[in-house]
Structures are given as structure tokens and as C-alpha cells.
Amino acid sequence: MPRLTEKEQQEIIRYIEADKPLPDEYRFLLFEDKREVELVWNGKTNEICNIVLPFQVIEQVDEPRAEKDTRIQRTLFDLDNRGRQLKGWTNKLIWGDNKLILSSLKNGPLREEIEAQGGIKLIYIDPPFDVGADFSMDIEIGDDTFTKKPNILEEIAYRDTWGNGADSFIAMIYERLVLMRDLLAEEGSIYVHCDWRVNHHMRQVLDEVFGRENFLNEVIWGYFSFKRKTAKKFPQKHDDIISYRKSKHSFIWNTQFKPHSNEYLKRWKTDNNGRRYRDDVNPTAGGARIIYLDEIEGDIVDSVWDDIPPVNPQAIERVNFPTQKPEALLERVIKASSNEGDLVVDVFCGSGTTAAVAEKLGRKWIVTDLGKFAIHTTRKRMIGVQRQLKAEGKGYRAFEILNLGKYERQHYIGINPNLREAEQQKQLEEKEAAFVDLILRAYRAEKVDGFTTFHGKRAGRMVSIGPINMPVTRLFVEEIILECRKKHISRVDILGFEFEMGLFPNVLDEARSKGIDIAPKYIPAEVFDKRAVEKNQVVFHDVAAIEVKPLFKKSSIAVELTDFSVFYSQDSVATAETTLKNKASKIVAEHGQIVKVSKDKDGIVSREVLTKHWTDWIDYWAVDFNFESKREIVRVRNEEIGEWEEVWTGDYIFENEWQSFRTKKDRSLELKSVYHECKPGRRKLAVKVVDIFGNDTMTIIEVNVGENR
Ligand SMILES: C[S@@+](CC[C@H](N)C(=O)[O-])C[C@H]1O[C@@H](n2cnc3c(N)ncnc32)[C@H](O)[C@@H]1O
To answer: Which end is more exposed in the chain, N or C (fewer Cβ atoms within 10 Å of the end residue's Cβ)?
Structure first.
């Protein structure tokens, strides 16, 4: 019998001719699919990202902090005389969208390195499962709090995750879970943290990706917190942590124990020697037996975890990250499903809890996040962990911070992936043109044609606009330099939403040496606000500037930080003054100052500058005492011979040798580094400053150390 009757075939044709969607029942008639229960969402596809983008190392932290003449050789590995780890695995903290990172890890050259470590044994993820938890963040300044709005990249990620509610969340997580499954080692497992908002979808998606037979647990993490009587249902006071193994044949499992409850202990008797015991039935030989309390390992941890409190505001481990999870929770997960030396991964790392616990437990790690603030929080936290382990005489590994190097135009915002290629291209061109027009209008620049990298000009300078959904990369700037040289252009403004970390100042110096003056500027989010554009209120602020002074002592050198300027703007004082209600206040950032604008009960306005000193903007700074000593090598595929090759990018890696930063407990900052002993002669020093929002800037100075100075 044919699968479709004549009538059904005719009906399908009629629907197609009328350009109408087919009724649902045809799904089961038309497609060959054995799945009986399946989660379907709008836009579901089997297409999984397979792009490989190169990873660029932008910073390396071998030792937490080089103190003068102190070199305790206590890391897991040998160190050279600058404290560099000479061999072994280097942990990885990667900034970028985890879809591109996972796909590049899976299909790119790092995969080999991962497999050489035995593969990824454990993945824990805690994706943003609460629609309200976006990328804005609260920064404490004195007694006040400034809420930094998300940048454009973060807003796009937020829209990708929540734009169509649950549909887009599931689509986002589905593709990433498939990539994670493919990356996991055969004996590996995955833990997914979520709550009542998405746990029902998550179980089904995980069933589909990992197979129902590989389900391990749905852990209920019950946390104690304030309950309201007004809630007309039982207060929701637990999260779910759902775990799956990759394969049922073998997987890592270590039973976990916790102390027995007092209730349980009351049931034990005490013998003449003070030992606690109880009578029991011998399960194998039959008859009675006695078991002693000190002979059993404790209470086996089951799937209800009610003994781990959330990170409270006073907790020592708290790093002021809103969704931070407790270390004890991760400790249980990591101990149960990995062994010492195993590689553990978290691609939504936030404040870096997984990395911190993995390091303390002697595991290797790769963690990633899209938020710069998250990456910076994790960097500080991991340096703190290294310092702690060093002080305790324990081992730790070096870590590096990486970027995704080259982004592709195809990832352009809002291009409908279901369109045919030619239509996608058309849509891309239209969107790009509209975007360029918008930015040029806001920047008050005139449009130009006939250039590859320039879009406009203003006041005798060419204007180049960076991509909308990705950072301006070094490759992008290098193309600009090339066109400048070809067409004898010497002054350029580059407008970008984000700049790749560690991009400046090297590339600007390179341009300057060729007679080209490049000024990078941030495009503020207000460009999308029509009224702000019409009123000429959009300020394109410069990237921050650092001033330092070298200090010499015989053959040693130290650095003093003497100035730091930030030009960040968010909202304006004038707008706040006109829109504020009486008896209200608002904190805005304008031209690099954070200002509290208040209106009293009579409508009288007052302003208070909260960033009183330039140091108030600094959260962290670090020094590399010999910048040009570690070349940045990337592995690129040589298509002719079909192999990966190592190529020097022409740049150097910032080796974080000394650093000072503020912590929740200690808000102070040193402004002079320690003296660093070095070989006489000329060398370049690099100083990196990270502001309170997690944005980093670097400066390089050339010095002459020792007798020939
Ligand atoms: C719930 S938080 C993780 C908190 C973390 N478990 C901790 O203990 O601090 C989720 C994180 O996912 C990150 N994120 C959201 N979308 C992302 C994406 N597409 N790629 C990478 N990270 C992303 C956010 O920046 C946020 O830091």
C-alpha cells in the first residue's frame, strides 16, 4: 500500500501551490522518523555549527605574582627563571560565544591537544535559564551602585537566547549540547544546571542528544533562603542539576559521602570502649552482625542535596557575580564524575566557580564566557586561587586567556539561516548598508564610496566602521592599514562596539611606524536611539589611555602607574536632569565620570561625581617585564598539504608577571610594582589595566636597563 493516498497527495500539492504551511499530521506521514516522543520547537533543524576560528592567546599567567627574588618552585611543573611553566597542559579561559568556541574546539587544532590529555571527562554548565538575568551588572562605587548596561554583543546574545522565549532558548542550548556531546570523552559525563523555568525542556533535549538510556540523575539542590507567606503556592526553593553520561559502557563515578545526620546518629549505641555501634543483619552470610560507625565512610550522597547553602552576601568565596554558584556544589560534581588530572569544562563559566574548584582539586580546565566582566572576574579569581595554593605549598597550573581570532561576516545579526544562499547574501548587504548609514549619521560623517575598508569621512579623517555583532579584530585593522598604504591615507577613525582583547596598542604603533594615525572609538548603544541621534547626543568615546613611569634600581626595574583615563559614557547628565522625578536619583556615566544626579522634593537638582580620582576606575593592573619574549603562535590549516601549521602572528603574548587588584575584602590598589631583576639592555615592558567594567587596555614602553643606560 502506498504511504500516501491519492487524496493526501492531491491535498499536499494544493497546500504547496497555495504557499500555505502543511497541517501537522503530515509530519508523521511524510518523514521517516522512529522517535515516538520528541520535543519540537519553531525553527528546529539538525544543522550544527562546524566553523573553525583560530584561537589567539592574549595573556598568560604562569605564577600568581612574582615577588622580588622569590621563586618557590612549587608548581606542578618546572619553571624557567621568569616563573614560566615549561611543560604540561595550560588551562584555558576563553572569551567569546560558546557556539563558535565549541565548534572550533571540536573541529580545530586544539582538539588534538585535548585528546592528548585523555579528552574532556566532565562538562558542567549553568546557562542563563532565567529570562530576567541579562548581562547588565551592578558596580559598587563607594556607597552607590552604577548599573552598567549590556554592550551590543551581549545584547545580541541575550536576544538569541530569549528573543522567541522558550523556542530560542531551546534552539540555543540544543546546538551547543550536540557540540558538547561530540567533544566529551567516551567515559565522560555532563551536568546541566537549571530550574523550574526550563527543566522540563532540558530533560527532553538531553534525552534526544545523549539518549534516554544515558540519563544519570536529576539532582534537586534545595537551598535555604527567605520565604514569603504571601506566595499562594509552595515557595520554589530548589534548582535542578540534570546529569547524563556519554556512553553506558563505562563512565567515571566516585561515590560521595556526607556526615550522618544527628537523627541517624541517635540510633547508634556506645560500647564500653566508647565506640559507636549498631546491630545489623548480615546481608550475605545471614545472621546478626555488629557494625561500627567509624568503619563506614559516612552517609552516601543521594539525589537530594539540601546541605549546600547558596553563596550568601558575606561568604568569603563571593566575588559579586549575581549568579555565582557555591564552590561546595561544584566540588561534589567534580569529585563524583572526574579524577585528578582529568580535563573539566564549563562553557558558561560566569565568575569561574568550575575553574576555581577544578584547580583546587587538581583537575585541568577549559572555561569560556561571552561577558568581558565574567572573563575578568574569573581571571582575578584564578590568580587568587593560584596565590592561595602557592601559599599552602600546593601545586597549580598556568592558565592562558584566549580570544576567538577571526570572525566571519556570515554570523551577521538577523540573517535568516533558512533562506537560500543568494537571499542570505542580499539580506546581509541590505542590513549592512542600513547599519553603516545609521552609524555615519550618528557620527556626523559623510558617506564615501569606492573603498574596501572605509565607509565615510569626517574632519579630514577617514572613518571605518567595525562589524555589528563581533569585535574589531587585528585582521580588520591590518586590512585598514593595507588600504591606507595603497591609497596614501594617513588619518583614520575606527568605530567599533567591541575591540578584541589585547588589540591595542601594538597594532596602533605598527600603523604609526608606517605614518598612519589610527583613532579607535567605541560606538555607544545610544546609536540605536533615534531621538538621541537626532539631538546629536551620541558620544563616541575613545578607548582608555594609560600613563606609566619606569623606575630603575641598578639592573632592576619597576613600574609606577601615574594616570588612567576612561572616556566611557552611558546616558547623559542633561537627560537625567530633565527626566528624573522629584525625590529620585540616577547614576550616569558621562565623558569618563560617574555622576549621581539627584532631585529633591522641590525639584532642585544636584550632581555628585562618584569617580573622584582616576584610580577609582581601575580594578586591576598587571605588568609584563619583557613583552617581546613570547611570540604568539597560531595553528592554521595548510589546505595544500591538509595539515595544521604553526605560524607567528607578528604579535606577542602578554605574560602576566606581577599584578595588583581590588578584591571584595581588600579595596586597596598598589600603584608601584615590585622591582624586577633583568638582563642589562633595551627591552619593552607592557602594562595592562582593566577598568571596573572588565575592559582592558595596554601600553608598551621601551626602557634601557643596567649600566648602558
Ligand atoms: C548563570 S551564569 C553562570 C554562573 C556560574 N555558574 C558561576 O558560578 O558564576 C551564565 C553565564 O553564561 C554566559 N553566557 C550567556 N550566553 C553565552 C554564550 N552564548 N556564550 C558564552 N557565555 C554565555 C553569561 O555571560 C553568564 O556569565
So the answer is: N
Q: State the average pLDDT for the chain.
A: 86
Q: Is 157 in the pocket of ligand 1 (CB under 6 A)?
A: yes
Torsion angle of the four alpha carbons 478, 410, 347, 179, in this order, in degrees rounded to the nearest 10: -130
Q: How many residues does the chain have?
A: 709
What crossing angle do the helices spanning 474-487 and 506-513 adopt, rounded to 10°?
10
Helix/strand/coil for 53: coil
The set of cell numbers assigned to 28 is: 508523521
Reading the block at residue 12, the C-alpha cell is 499536499
What is the value of pTM for the model shown? Answer: 0.83
Ligand 1 pocket, residue 103 CB under 6 Å: no
Tell me, using a 6 A CB cutoff, whether residue 151 lines ligand 1.
no
* Partners of 100 in beta bridges: none
Note every long-range contact of 670-673, with CB atoms under 8 Å and residues 24 or more positions apart, other chains counting.
671/560, 671/561, 671/562, 671/615, 672/551, 672/558, 672/559, 672/560, 672/561, 673/558, 673/559, 673/560, 673/623
What is the 138 CA–ligand 1 centroid distance (Å)? 16
The secondary element (H helix, E strand) that includes residue 512 is helix 506-513
> How far apart, in Å, do the first and last CA atoms of the chain sit?
94
What spacing in Å lies between the alpha carbon of 356 and ligand 1's midpoint? Answer: 15
Cα–Cα distance, 612 to 614 (Å, whole number):
7
Give the cell for residue 695.
Answer: 575592559
**pLDDT band for position 68 (cuts 50, 70, 90):** very low
**Cα 235 from Cα 227, distance rounded (Å):** 7
Tens of pLDDT, residue by residue over 111-123, are: 999 999 999 999 9
CA pair distance 67, 384, nearest whole angstrom: 15
| Ligand 1 site, residue 376, Cβ cutoff 6 A | no
Cell of residue 534, nine digits: 537626532
Between β-strands 364-369 and 343-346, what pairing exists: parallel, antiparallel or unpaired?
parallel
Any ligand 1 atom below 6 A from CB of 325: yes
Hey, what's the cell of 128? 542563563
Place of cell 529570562: 131
- 337 or 533, higher pLDDT: 337
Instruction: Please write the tens of the pLDDT for every residue from 417-450.
Output: 566 778 877 877 887 788 888 899 989 999 999 9
The H-or-E segment that residue 457 falls in is strand 456-458
Nearest CA to ligand 1 atom 4: 350
Buried b (16+ CB within 10 A) or exposed e, 639-650: eeeeeeeeeebe
| Domains of the chain with CATH codes | 1-34 (no CATH), 55-256+301-404 (3.40.50.150), 409-542 (no CATH), 545-705 (no CATH)
pLDDT digits (tens, 9 = 90+) for 484-512: 999 999 999 999 887 877 677 778 888 99
Q: Give the pLDDT score at 74.
A: 43
In this structure, the strands spanning 91-95 and 364-369 are: parallel
Amino acid at 229: K
The whole-angstrom separation of Cα 505 and Cα 685 is 12
The cell for 163 is 528573543
Residues linked to residue 606 through DSSP beta bridges, in sequence order: 598
Identify which of 174, 366, 370 to mutate to test ligand 1's pocket (most ligand atoms within 8 A of the CB): 370
Give the distance from CA 573 to its chain's centroid: 32
- Residue recorded with cell 602578554: 654
Is the pLDDT at 192 greater than 70? The verdict is yes
Q: Which range (91-100, 328-337, 341-350) has the least confidence?
A: 91-100
Q: What's the pLDDT tens digit per position in 366-392?
A: 999 988 889 999 999 999 999 999 999
Q: What is the DSSP letter of 503?
A: -
- Structure confidence at residue 544 as a pLDDT band (50, 70, 90): confident
